[in-house]
Each structure stands twice: as structure tokens, then as C-alpha cells.
Amino acid sequence: MDRLTGKVALVSGGARGIGEGIVRRFVAEGARVAIADVLDAEGEALAAELGDAATFLHLDVTDRSQWDAAVAAVEVKWGRLDCLVNNAGVIVFKRIDDLTEAEIRRLLDINLMGVINGTQAAIPALERAGGGSIVNMSSADGISGANSLSVYCASKFAVRGFTKACALELGHRKIRVNSIHPGGIFTPMANPTNIPREYYDKGFWIYPAQRAGDPEDIGAAAAFLASDDGKYCMGTELAVDGGLNAGHYYMTMPGAPTNPFA
Ligand SMILES: NC(=O)c1ccc[n+]([C@@H]2O[C@H](COP(=O)([O-])OP(=O)(O)OC[C@H]3O[C@@H](n4cnc5c(N)ncnc54)[C@H](O)[C@@H]3O)[C@@H](O)[C@H]2O)c1
Question: 141 near 190, Cβ under 8 Å?
């Protein structure tokens, strides 16, 4: 595992959950990684555990000036930036009738403006490095709709479209832009009521994998897109969702799953 040796990455929302899984995989692949998050204690602790290959930067992705400072700090520390992972995000589970304007604006500000801010801030540094890779975290909910997630879905569909347009504009400038579409990854976001894993998995029996995924699954996908293994991927939407968006089962017809928990 040395596909990212010599590369320098910045992972927004890297202090926990999927971001932490990406940080750990990138370091295991030889990268030096800036963990950029609003969760200072968690981010500092992760960086300390990973040693010289990691550093923590306080970053609120909604603030463009903080992005500029974070990218500059990475270049000062390690001399280059090869990969940006726009992973930070938030969710609110509510019916459309019940979302407040403040909740709607916060969802769009973090999940969409955060990705746009990060992209704009990173482009000059990626060009100075001779090119690079941007990996945007969309969602299975950026490919199909989901109840209780109308505005979250809107933000993740937007990230998917933004990714494709940027792939067109930046590919010929040696910057590849791709999106990952996780589904049902066992993290604090997806499990806000802290349901134990064995119960949580039961909700997934109607999908091909019949269990939730792990942050490591997304770390592996991000490492692929960040590395030269993904060098022909531009505007690719990579679903890592246990088959959640592959289609749907006709439950009374051959080939449907049975409930292993029943
Ligand atoms: N868990 C899933 O099943 C799942 C599925 C699809 C997509 N996603 C996406 O993956 C990404 C990570 O989700 P997760 O499940 O790890 O969630 P999480 O809540 O465990 O982690 C999100 C991280 O983003 C950080 N963050 C939030 N707002 C921020 C801000 N303004 N500035 C900087 N950092 C901020 C948080 O502090 C946290 O460390 C999100 O974009 C999410 O929408 C998750």
C-alpha cells in the first residue's frame, strides 16, 4: 500500500467518520495529510496518533478565507498540495414541511458552498504541484431521492453536477475531479441515535450487501481516485453503497433476498 507516496492531501471533515477513514487510508498509502475540521479535539488527537504524516488545521468550510489559510498552511508545511477531499458535510432528517430556513441554509452552506469554496481555494495550489485530484463527497442521496432528506438530497445532487462541470473545466488543466456516492456508512452522521451495529445492520437487509458499510470502504475508494490508479477517471460518480442504488427488488420474484434477521 504505497499508492500515495510523495503526495500531500487535505481532507475536510477529516476528524471523524468517513473523513477519518480517508485520512487513515491515505496515510497508510504513504501520503501526508492535513485533517481540516471544526472538531479541534478529535482532529488534534487523530493527527497526534498518526505522527509526522498528519497535521490538524481548524477549518470551517463555509468560510473562504479559512480555506485560503488552510491551503497556504499545507504548502508552507509540505511544499505542495496534490489532493483535496471535500468531505465535510451535515445532515438533517426532517420532512420538507418542517425544515426551518436556518436549517436549509446551513445544509446548503456546508454541503455545497463548502465544496465550491474548497475547490476554488485549492486550484492554484494543485496547478503549482503540476496537477492533482479533487474528490467530492456526494451521496447515494445525490443519485436518487430519499424521504426526510429533501434539502440534503438537493445539496448532494448539486455536488454531483458541480463535480462533472469542474471535471470538464479542470481536466485539461491536469486536475481530475470526481465524486463518491456512499450509502449507509456506519458513522455518527448516519447513526445519530447511536444504535448498536448489530441492530443497525438489520435495516439494510433489503439491499444487496445486507449490512451497512464502514469508513474504510470510502477510504479505499478515495485512495483509488486520488492515486494514479484513477488517472483516467474524470467526472466519474463512484457509488460505494452496498448496492443501494443498483435498482430495486421485486420481492415475490426469483432472486430476491430473504430477511436474515427475521
Ligand atoms: N455516513 C453515511 O452513510 C454517508 C452517506 C453518504 C454520504 N455521506 C457524506 O460523507 C461525508 C462525511 O459524513 P460522515 O458520515 O462521516 O459524517 P460525520 O458527521 O461523522 O462527519 C462529518 C465531519 O464533517 C465535519 N464538519 C461538519 N461541518 C463542518 C464545517 N462547517 N467545516 C468543517 N468540517 C465540518 C464534522 O465536524 C465531522 O468531523 C458527508 O459529506 C456526508 O454527507 C455520508
Answer: no
pLDDT category at 262 given cuts 50, 70, 90 is confident
Give the start-to-end residue ranges of the domains of the chain.
Answer: 8-240
The DSSP 8-state label assigned to residue 10 in this structure reads E
pTM (predicted TM-score): 0.98
Pocket lining for ligand 1, CB < 6 angstroms:
12-13, 15-19, 37-39, 59-62, 87-90, 110, 137, 139-140, 182-185, 187-190
**How many distinct helices (H) and strands (E) make up the chain?**
8, 7
Cα-to-centroid distance, 111 and ligand 1 (Å) = 9
Superfamily of domain 8-240 in CATH is NAD(P)-binding Rossmann-like Domain (3.40.50.720)
> Where does 28-156 show beta strands of DSSP type E?
32-37, 54-58, 83-86, 132-137
Q: What does the pLDDT look like over 95-105, one tens digit per residue? A: 999 999 999 99
**One-letter identity of residue 158:** A
Helix axes 150-171, 114-128, angle to 10 degrees: 20
Cα separation, 245 vs 140, in Å, equals 7
